[in-house]
Specification:
single chain, alpha/beta, Lyase, Ornithine Decarboxylase, Chain A, domain 1, TIM Barrel, 9-stranded mixed β-sheet, 8-stranded parallel barrel, 26% strand
């Protein structure tokens, strides 16, 4: 069942709480998350990969609200991070350091040091230069760093080019061709300042077919098995994330087939498996609430101008991404297509284009669906617009996770030189 449904009066609601009441009390633009939906989807994912012995680390890049991370920590999740800032967030939200995986191609020395000092569980290295940096920092502290090698198995994931990471033409991972990855893993295993943690792969995001996963996982399994045959310790195969979601209907992901694929490939393999879901847990458990400012009739289309904009939700502009948009109140009949646009001074500032919308007027509340992932985390203050706040609804109670800052607070972050 979707997290956001219409009540008996036709009003969009979450956990029994009307989004109309939320908009009236907390204002807009505002991200609203379903805590019950997040918890349920995490449990379903963990249950699907559990038979294969999977360890689940939530990808903070999808949504890094402390309240969301804390909820998942309470459910037993670890964290997949890609920056020192996300490390701080994971720890602050209660994720044990031993359950944190540090991914990404450009970890700075201070970020590596902070991760080692915290006692992080795994660092996914992506280049010989990074392995050397980790080794030197670990040596200076007299410890052994847990390092897995992220490999690039050259699989095309059939997704948007900007979120495709599995091909050798991207910046991610070390190629398994021509012994490059094998030689680097041998170096990792021989380094006295490194504890070889295994192998990692992540081929991209919003992947809706299982075929790319199967290709990548078979290649990783074969590679890991070959390294073990040499006598090298390869304890973990980190399978990454990337399961796509249904942005059209907003239905919860079905993890059954994915879990069956993992069990079929890795049953009795002897590897510990790691997973980094993000979007599949969060996307359909969040909406962006917004209100109509004006309705403008152009020469050949209708523009519904709302108080949310590309600075609040960048995905439509950045990825040409589709988000369903619904009225919060019971919808009337559609009267024709409209572009849902924001106040930002860019033609690309839109939340949806060509949508069949009912009659709308100033003050009407709309919900941009499937906005729980890569929404608030990618927001900015472009045009000096404070980005939307965040609110979590769980068991019928509203929790403000982060209020919308004021313009005065934005200005207070800067200084003016004494000319």
């Amino acid at each position: 069942m979707p997290a956001f449904i219409r009540d008996a009066n036709g009003v969009l609601s979450v956990s029994g709480v009307s989004l109309a009441d939320i908009a009236a009390q907390y204002g807009s633009p505002l991200y609203v998350y379903s805590g019950d939906g997040i918890r349920n989807d995490y449990r379903r994912f963990a249950g699907a990969v559990g038979p294969a012995g999977g360890r689940v680390h939530f990808a903070l890049k999808a949504n890094s609200a402390l309240g969301v991370i804390a909820l998942l920590a309470h459910e037993g999740a670890g964290a997949d991070i890609v920056s020192g800032g996300e490390l701080a967030r994971a720890l602050a939200a209660g994720i044990p350091a031993s359950k944190i995986v540090f991914s990404g191609v450009g970890k700075a020395a201070d970020e590596i040091a902070a991760a080692l000092d915290a006692g992080i569980g795994q660092i996914n290295a992506e280049s010989p230069q990074e392995v050397e940096a980790i080794s030197q920092i670990a040596a200076s502290r007299g410890i052994k760093a847990p390092v897995a090698l992220r490999v690039n198995v050259d699989v095309t994931p059939q997704t948007h080019a900007k979120i495709s990471t599995g091909q050798r033409s991207t910046k991610f991972g070390v190629s398994t061709a021509q012994n490059e990855a094998a030689n680097l893993y041998r170096q990792i295993a021989a380094d006295p300042h490194i504890s070889a943690a295994g192998l990692a792969v992540h081929i991209g995001s919003q992947i809706t077919s299982l075929d790319p996963f199967e290709q990548a996982y078979r290649a990783l399994l074969d590679f890991g098995t070959a390294l073990r045959a040499e006598g090298l310790d390869v304890p973990v195969l980190d399978l990454g994330g990337g399961i796509g979601v249904d942005y059209e209907a907003g239905e919860a992901c079905d993890f059954t087939d994915y879990g069956a694929l993992v069990s079929r490939l890795f049953a009795d393999s002897g590897f510990i498996l790691g997973f980094e879901p993000g979007r599949s847990i969060m996307a359909n458990n969040g909406v962006l609430l917004t209100r109509v400012i004006y309705v403008k009739d152009g020469d050949n289309k209708r523009f519904v101008i709302v108080d949310a904009a590309m600075n609040d939700l960048l995905r439509p502009t950045l990825y040409e991404a589709h988000h369903a948009i619904q009225t919060v109140q019971s919808p009337g009949p559609g009267i024709g297509p409209a572009d849902i646009v924001g106040p930002v001074c860019e033609t690309g500032d839109y939340l949806g284009q060509g949508r069949d919308m009912p009659q709308l007027g100033a003050g009407d509340a709309l919900a941009v669906l499937s906005a729980g992932a890569y929404g608030a985390v990618m927001a900015s203050s472009y045009n000096t617009r404070p980005p939307a706040g965040e609110l979590l609804v769980m068991d019928g109670t509203c929790h403000v996770l982060r209020r919308q800052r004021t313009v005065a607070e934005l200005l207070a972050e800067e200084t003016v030189p004494d000319f």
